[in-house]
Amino acid sequence: MGDEIYVxxxxxxxxxxxxxxxxxxxxxxxxxxxxxxxxxxxxxxVGLTAWQALVEKSNVQKGxxxxx
Length: 68
Known about the structure:
- The protein has one helix spanning about 35-55, and strands spanning about 5, 30.
- By secondary structure, the protein is of the alpha+beta class.
- A two-stranded antiparallel sheet has the order 1-2.
């Protein structure tokens, strides 16, 4: 059996909900062993959403703190 991985397909890549999909290897990361596959699958979208909210929309800068 191979390594467990998770991926965020490139923007506008059709088939993210398919059982199988071809992706570029640069879009793949090894799944941390302490996460379930479901938890790992949530990382890319949740991480991107948090980045957009904090950095792009709220303009949080290095050294600033955010209360969540």
